[in-house]
Fold each of these.
Amino acid sequence: MMDTQKIRKDFPQLKRRINGKPITYLDSTATSLKPTQVLAKMNEYYTKYTANIFRGIYKTSEEATAEYEAARAKVAAFIGANKPEEIVFTRNTSESVNLVAYSWGKGNLRSGDQVAVTIMEHHSNFVPWQQLAGEKSLGFRVWGVDKDGTLNLKELDTLITRKTKLLAITAVSNVIGTINPIKEIVRRVKKLNPKCIVLVDGAQAVPHMRVDVAHWGADFVAFSSHKMLGPTGVGVLWGRMELLEAMPPFIYGGDMIKEVHRDTTVYNSVPHKFEAGTPHIAGVIGLGAAVDYLSVFGMDNVRSHEKEITEYALEKLAGVSGLQIIGPNDPEVRGGVLAFVMKGIHPHDIAQILDEDNVCIRVGFHCAQPLHEYLAVGPTARASFYVYTTKEEIDALVAGLGKVKKMLG
Amino acid sequence: MRSWPDLVKSKRCWADMDMYRDIILDHYKHPRNFGTLSSADAKASEYNATCGDRISIEIQCQMINAKCQIKDIRFSGEGCAISVASASMLTEKVKGMKVENVLKLATEDILVMLGTELTPSRTKCAVLPLEVLQKAVVCLGL
């Protein structure tokens, strides 16, 4: 059980009042709020041991390096990676996916090969593959969803062929919340084509449930710090060591080299080969603190809390006439994100009227326009939940939707 | 036409929701000049991919004293209350206007027409119909 009221005290933004009213933050899928523990840890770097990492032969630099690498070890343990070196720090999930598309894609994809994605991908795990397919004349295959917003695993039999070099798939939809059975999908993909690489977008999974990359059996997993209580500007790419070692660098520059001569360069080892230039040191250390913070609860408890809130929200929103939930209705296969539409009312107007009472939701296509087109629903409104979300906040949302209907219905 | 201060002082349907003033809600719920023309001289449409608003405008023109004027206008599409109300009010505003003046209209004119302050993201919704109309005028190739 999680003590939400106690947790809320850790988040300074929840104490803020705008026009005398509290903030009901229901947009954690876009980015999460940050606890004081994370902010304090980042501030510590900026006030106690600001120094560049790796090269300094003095105490504060050694301290900064140790904290930076400790964060890598924490992230590795958090997702069940074999070793810290399998964790590459990037700027965000998009950059992590692009790293694979450019670096792994460069050496491994040739004209005539196929790459596959699902229709529920965030643009960050869709556009890189769509564009690479165009550039390299690859087949670009898209796995659709059933009416209930879930994937039909039988379709893998036709989706994955011996020409399929990669499947890019999200673990949890950032719109309809569908939790995909990654372990089973990877098992089937590898059976159909052992050489097919599976890249999992974990941006909506790692912050909200227990993720074990070894259990999944995938080859790459990408996610972002800022969606899991950490700062913006830090992303993670986990990859299997033998894959990372075989891949060329994505960005050239400082830190990623071992030796540089007039005409040749020897690259640094993994993961440093992929971390050119001074990284977001404070951000990475902050992510480490976010991992510590979440680890105190245990990710199974985080998931339980969100499932309870989602169940409550599904029930309450079902009582709003003219409101339609998009995606699975079963909280067992749905993460804490609810997209919905209201008959005859544009989502922008919903969000605008809710904002009068500081109820923050997101509207539009949520960086998943192909999914909206596929489902033929137009733009949607989306409420999403996290460790600090309460049932009272769901009630505030429902009350706000009542106002929306009164005004525009 | 009412002046800006009058508009600001006008009755509001929601205590602190300037954005959804009566006149905007009225145009949203009962859009004027909605539909298509049987014979249009020019048409244009625009799509706002961030919010899914889609507005099309058709115009019919006439020459008066060697100046081209908007004789009739229709709009269609779907959007939020702000973009629909803006389109509806704009069609009324420009009927009979010289096209050269239509091209001079700017964001400020739209905000004055709506009589409300908008956040930057909603300003895009409000200005979309003007962009479509100006695109249609350019299509006339005058």
Amino acid sequence: MFGLSIRFWRNAVIVGIVASAVLPMIPMIVWCFSSGWYFPNLIPEEWSIRGWVYITEPYSRAFPALLNSLLIAGAVTLIAFPIGIPAARALGLYKFRGKRIVEYLILAPLIVPELPMAIGIHILFIKYGLANTLFGVMIIHLILVVPYVVLVLAGVFANYGPETEQSARTLGASPLRVFFYVTLPAIFPGMVVGGLFAFIRSWRTYVFTLIIGGGVVETLPLVVFSFIGEGDNHVSAVLSVLFIAPAILMLLFTARYLTGEKGRGGFMGI
Amino acid sequence: MTAVVLHNLTKRFGSEVAAVDNLCLEIKSGELVGFLGPSGCGKTTTLKMVAGLLHPTDGDITFDGLSVLDIPPERRGAVMVFQNHLLFPYMNVIDNVSFGLRMRNLPKRATHERARHMLDLVRLSGFEQRRPTELSGGQQQRVALARALVTEPRLLLLDEPLSNLDAHLRYEMRELILSLQRKLKITTIFVTHDQQEAVILSDRTAVIFQGILQQFGKPRDFYERPASERVARFFGTENFLEGVLSGGAVETSLGKLELTDCQQTEGRVLVSIRPDAIVVNGAGTNTLDATVISSLYSGTNTRLSLDIAGIELQAIESAHVKYAPGDRVTVTFPPERVVLIPTTSGNGTKAPDAAAIEDSFDGIVNQPSVDTHYRGTGQ
């Protein structure tokens, strides 16, 4: 097209996608160190690190929110595994009546729009006294997160040969030992990918935490958005960096499992 | 060294389909037995039941006379080696091989010692630190075998051990299995769909079609005394004729054929002769005139289609003589090569030449089910 090779266009698209993700971060990072930067200036007029000091103050609620987010996302990711792995195994390895329906139900939270879902669940949670509680927020996060774990691991199990487990059993391994010595190592890359998706899904949840938590349970997104709402760009930028940093760190640590080393691992068992 | 007996073993998936139907077999201690049959005939299912990986719908399995149905696979001592997904991909060779010993909570040093010794037996010394992905198919097989044998199991179960290998590797692997089995004297059952493999490897073979045992005996029996037309065809016998026994011979549409050593003197029977048994342009008892219909040269031999008194039969001759369609030849059916097969007509009629066929069932436990062994496709 236009006399340029496919290779050129492919590279151009990649650059375009990466740029659209990275470029908006540049103003954000500049705002982290400036308290005033207005059009049409290319460089901020006022430099400041006020925001960085601010977040360490207790009345900024920044660090408690960060801890809440870490606690919820971490706990929910861990709990999603004992729930998700058996489900994924069943869906990946077996055929049974009603399998389609089960699949759709498990994946439903991925498709149903957030706000209606949140409002509906909120009514239910009020009835059961779960509204405005940490426990209630964790439950709703779990509902949102389990489908990711199941989706990724079902793919892994679909490519899985149960013969390895069966040989292990005949070699003297009890079902529990088979799980730890054979199954777990085999699905580990899938668990990392699924865990990453799970963590990030919980980490970025705003609407649900706001509605179910009622403002009592405060996670980092809530704090970030409230500052954006107030129009303080500097503090918002600092909080945003605080918000994004853990997710990026997780991504860096698990990148190895996403791309696969030496053709091992890979995405969704492919 | 364990003797295994299957008593009326049945496995049903769902309500009607019986993958394994009323299987009765007795396997002697230290024997190498093959389960032979086309794909999907229930042989792997049977193997899994013996291993404890599947629970039978009906029947019993005994090791040395004691039922093992209540014993879970990790305690039965029957180790199974599969066709695919052989090794644990996240462990190196030595850890793979010592797995069974580690499951017994033996100290690591001792387990590695024995694992090394076993690797030596399968001629893979020096491969201890390699990963499964760094091994060829044949090498993986050998490691899998070492892993199974290092635990000194009561029973070794092999699921299609040679099917994934190319011809050269197949030969090597076969020799290895044979030599290890002879040396360690472990009762071994292997599953295959290849008659040649079964015949070469096993002491006795069980031929199974659609979950039903057709014949269980020494390899020679399938060629000289097949239990049914179907079994005979499975082993490459062609040329079937209907016949009636009279005196020491059988009356067929080709005339009277002399037999040797015929136990029975009366009754209907199926007569067959293997293509390689027919002698072309020879002489002797049972010689008839024939015309060549077609001739197919295949390098090592020549396949002939012959017209004998209006009936078409197949013969295999050595390659160096040439035949052309229309040639007039003589064919001889040596009496000792004429095979009598029980007809499937009638229910439970005692088959002619039954004595010879019964020899091959030495050791069958449940006499009343003898007629099940004769069941071919017939209902």
